[in-house]
Amino acid sequence: MGFASSLGNDISPQARYASSVSEPTADVVVIGAGIVGASCAYRLAERGLSVRILEAAPIPAGGSTGRSAAGVRVQFSQATNILLSWKSIQAYREMPEAAYTQLGYLLLVPVAEWPAHRKSVALQRDLGVPVEVLPLEAAQRVVEFVPDGLAGATYGPADGVVDPHGITLGYLRRARELGAHLHLETELLQARALSGGWRLETSRGGFSAGCVLNAAGAWAGEVGRRAGLEIPVQPARRMVYATGPLPWPHRYPLTIDLDSGFWFRSEGARLIFGRSNPADEGFVEGMDWDWLEPTLEVGLARFPWLEQAALDRKASWWGYYEVTPDHNPILGWMPGVEGWANACGFSGHGVQQAAMVGVLMAEEIADGRARSLEIGPLRYERFLQRQAVLERNIV
To answer: Do residues 151 and 57 share a domain?
Structure first.
């Protein structure tokens, strides 16, 4: 029996507890007003639950969501990730605020990774996802590159870019139209489980709820600690460098050299590009200009024509990934903890999967179990049972 089913025609235990205190109450409190939290809040409100969204920042989508490179792709190595992204892309196609643009993703694959990559492509195709295998000569007609060390390329024609900020605001607007409340500049300080619900202390006073959904992005681990829970999500800083306008017309797909991790794509008349620094962990703020040289070193080796582009420092930005040990999100109920659920740890692909995650988390909380997609491989229990499987296609 799910949380919503327990409401019935009588007052639920959660509602009985909530009505006994003079403070804001809700069936579900969502922590975080980024794209994942907004999607979940909308779908929960759609199911008839009372929802409050707590956001520590003064604006929604001010963290990882607003600083994303905005790409959406289906080229993952695990079925759950493939389907989460594919179903989300289909939702974004129908959402005006998403501004979905079918730019495509081009992955350049080194020889050593080619057999495993081909297996991933076979899985993607088995799941009904459009992915093309390209010989290097064909890929070079899309983007010029030095082919040394590469075996082939794959291209996702339905992959592309979206407007994460627009999506977040769209979901929040829909949620509020259904009665949800958004509380900005409301930082969670402590959460305590009580009989039939949760008591939350925040920078704006107390809240009570039957259920808490942790969608706090890079801060999800800290949110868990403030509730006495260990949630393995760590922040990792990532750079997005921008060029000035290029002197030629272009519409480059989001192109990733899997050998080095260097990526770029067209952004209007300019390019944006980057490369993850595995040593850049924790809540470190600001641009890392020292990382620009090692990023460009591998980028120019593969794409020598980039030398013609000028860097625009003012247009560059940084943001956080929310990283888990296996680079997969944590979805679903927290084992052994009544009324606490997680939707966090997306390791760089939260924007890509947020639409479907909202549907699944609404099912998880309202019905007791997500049913539209099997999320077993993404549940917290995988860490307890040592069953975590690394997602290979993370950049």
So the answer is: no
Whether 192 contacts 212, CB under 8 Å: no
The torsion angle over the Cα atoms of residues 54, 56, 59 and 61, rounded to 10 degrees, is -80
Q: What's the domain range around 43?
A: 13-64+164-233+325-384
Q: Which two tokens stand for residue 284?
A: 């470190």
The residue type at 38: A
Query: Where in 196-339 does DSSP place strands (E)?
Result: 197-202, 205-214, 234-242, 254-257, 262-267, 270-274, 317-323, 330-333
In a domain, 204, yes or no: yes
Residue 6 included in any domain: no
pTM: 0.93
Cα–Cα distance for residue pair 284/295, rounded to 1 Å: 19
pLDDT of residue 337: 96
Q: pLDDT tens digits, residue range 333-349?
A: 999 999 999 999 999 99
Q: Are residues 131 and 239 in the same domain?
A: yes
Query: 8 pLDDT band (50/70/90 cuts)?
Result: very low
Grade residue 3 by pLDDT with cuts at 50, 70 and 90: low
User: Whole-angstrom Cα distance, residue 88 to residue 354?
Assistant: 7
Same domain, 178 and 278: no
Please determine, for residue 64, whether its predicted confidence score (pLDDT) is greater than 60.
yes
In this structure, the dihedral spanned by the alpha carbons of residues 82, 87, 92 and 94, taken in order and rounded to 10 degrees, is: 150
239 and 228 together in one domain: no
> Which of residues 321, 344, 366 is at a domain's end?
321
CATH classification of the domain holding 348 = 3.50.50.60
Please give the structure tokens belonging to residue 114. Answer: 């080619």
Cβ atoms of 89 and 100 within 8 Å: the answer is: yes
Average pLDDT of span 382-390 = 87
* Together in a domain, 149 and 184: no
Candidates 11, 36, 10, 38; CA nearest to 25 is 11
The per-residue pLDDT for 59 is 97
- Write down which residue in 280, 299, 321 finishes a domain: 321
pLDDT at 390: 80
Give the Å distances, CA to CA, from 355 to 149, 154, 261, 351.
37, 25, 26, 8
Distance CA 306, CA 323 (A): 30
For residues 202 and 24, the answer to whether their CB atoms sit within 8 Å is no
Burial of 243 from C-beta contacts in 10 A (0-12 / 13-18 / 19+): buried
